[in-house]
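Q: Structure tokens for this one, please.
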Amino acid sequence: MKNYLSNKFYYLRHITKLDKIMTLLAIFFPCVSFLLRGKIFTAVICLILQITLIGWIPAAIWAVVSLQNSRADRRNTRLIKAIRNK
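A: Here is the predicted structure, written as tokens:
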């Protein structure tokens, strides 16, 4: 049981400072978060959305979810490469 829990929370223990900074950036400056990841068109759409105060919350949620998805994609790519190399 202990091994299962340690594997389940492995990712939570290995969040780097850069990940924390990017998450805070995605919350407070969503369009900058997209720009730093090279998604220029998405950043422009996000900026238009966050110009209004009401649109700031959906833009921040969108940026955080997009950031989490890109991290998951990178993690999955590394896992697939590791499996293929075995």
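A few notes: Residues 16-85 form one domain. The mean pLDDT is 82.
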